[in-house]
UniProtKB/TrEMBL annotation:
It comes from the Bacteria. It catalyses: a monocarboxylic acid amide + H2O = a monocarboxylate + NH4(+). Residues 35-174, 188-373 form the Amidase domain. Belongs to the amidase family. It is an enzyme of class 3 (hydrolase). Its EC number is 3.5.1.4. This is amidase. It holds the Pfam family Amidase. It comes from Corynebacterium aurimucosum (strain ATCC 700975 / DSM 44827 / CIP 107346 / CN-1). One of its GO terms (molecular function) is amidase activity.
Length: 381
């Protein structure tokens, strides 16, 4: 796939007649021009509407939070300096707090594969733009599955790099090669022992048969390529990991000046986390990757990304806050493990007969980012 397939003129043509719910943009500037030339010259990107690009509005997923940014976030400036052209902002839920994309006072993007249903979140606008073929790639971020959930829901590629925090920035793309280019990685495949995990980790939920079938077929693909696979089960400390995730995730919202609804509920949860609980959560996260490697004795974990197909728009927000949170976890009961462990993970689309593609998920225990991308290319060349 060449960047010449994605031009401003082509984007203008493709956007003609699409509503904000269909294209996923909260802001568009089709008159912009590249500021420099470099390795990303010709790439047209959107930026998630939680991050700043100078001169563009940032809403943080809530119309009343909107402001015009004076500076560009460092990672985004690096992309621009490398020649990438940022044409606008992609929709996200308020503060990126949910796995749907229903910002307050702004249009709610629709899933191109499942009309009337959520595209997932929190990087839902980005996934819609890539899935519709409007963009070759879109900037995104992931603090609990927010790149990988919408990628799986919309049938595209979502990679969460390793990092030093619960949340990291990345991209939703149409290919692993494009992901590697944007991150500056060179994928390399090496021998790896793969654990296959289909039992939910962090919630009780019945996993849809076609999700299980996709993982079984992906397992067979790995075995056919000469990789060793082994079935694994949830580890004994899974409940402690999910508690650590909740403490770290909510504590960072404790200092919000303005919050209401679901955001206020998360803020209140964060304010109840004590210093000792927060320290214990961070300590658990720090030793999690080593503990998992010893427990499972594998290099990577293969699982579904989602337990069932995307629900209708409004499904999560129709629930009370605790039930909303619980339902989000049931939809994606594996992904946040790799946020707590600060390890790379990726969702790739897998074809399913008489059904839109579904996301199969690979998370690393011992592999670096480039090696995980190389492993994922076995499933999605």
């Amino acid at each position: 796939m060449e960047s010449t397939e994605f031009t401003l003129d082509k984007l203008r043509e493709d956007l003609s007649g699409l509503s904000p719910a269909e294209h996923g943009f909260t802001y568009l500037d089709l008159e912009c021009r590249p500021q420099s030339h470099g390795r990303l010259s010709g790439w047209i990107l959107s930026v998630k509407d939680l991050n700043d690009v100078a001169g563009m509005p940032t809403t943080l997923g809530h119309a009343e939070r909107a402001y015009v940014a004076e500076e560009t976030d460092p990672l985004l400036q690096e992309l621009i300096d490398a020649g990438a052209l940022v044409v606008g902002k992609s929709a996200a839920p308020e503060l990126g707090l949910r796995v749907d994309t229903e910002p307050v006072g702004l249009p709610h993007p629709d899933n191109p594969l499942y009309p009337g249903h959520t595209p997932g979140g929190s990087s839902g606008g980005a996934a819609v733009q890539v899935a519709r073929g409007l963009l070759r790639a879109a900037h995104a971020s992931d603090g609990g599955g927010s790149i990988r959930v919408p990628a799986a829901a919309c049938g595209v590629v979502g990679f969460k790099p390793g990092g030093e925090d619960l949340s990291v920035q990345g991209f939703i793309t149409r290919s692993i090669a494009d992901t590697a280019t944007l991150h500056g990685f060179r994928p390399r495949a090496r021998r790896a022992r793969i654990g296959v995990l289909t039992d939910p980790l962090f919630a009780e939920v019945e996993v849809a048969p076609h999700m299980l079938r996709a993982v079984a077929e992906a397992t067979a693909t790995f075995e056919g390529a000469g990789f060793e696979t082994v079935a694994i089960s949830p580890y004994p400390q899974a409940a402690a990991t999910f508690e650590a995730f909740q403490h770290i995730f909510s504590r960072r919202l404790a200092g919000l000046d303005f919050a209401e609804g679901y955001a206020e509920w998360i803020r209140a949860k964060g304010r109840r986390v004590t210093d000792s609980e927060f320290a214990a959560a961070r300590a658990h996260a720090a030793q999690l990757s080593e503990m998992l490697a010893q427990e499972w004795e594998v290099d990577a974990i293969l699982s579904p990304m989602l337990a069932f197909d995307p629900p209708r728009r409004g499904h999560f927000l129709a629930l009370d806050h605790q039930a909303n949170f619980d339902e989000q976890t049931r939809w994606s009961p594996w992904g946040s493990l790799f946020n707590v462990a600060q390890l790379p993970a990726i969702s790739v689309p897998w074809p399913v007969r008489d059904h839109p593609p579904v996301g199969v998920h690979l998370g690393s225990l011992t592999l670096d980012d480039a090696s995980l991308l190389g492993l994922a290319q076995v499933l999605h060349p």
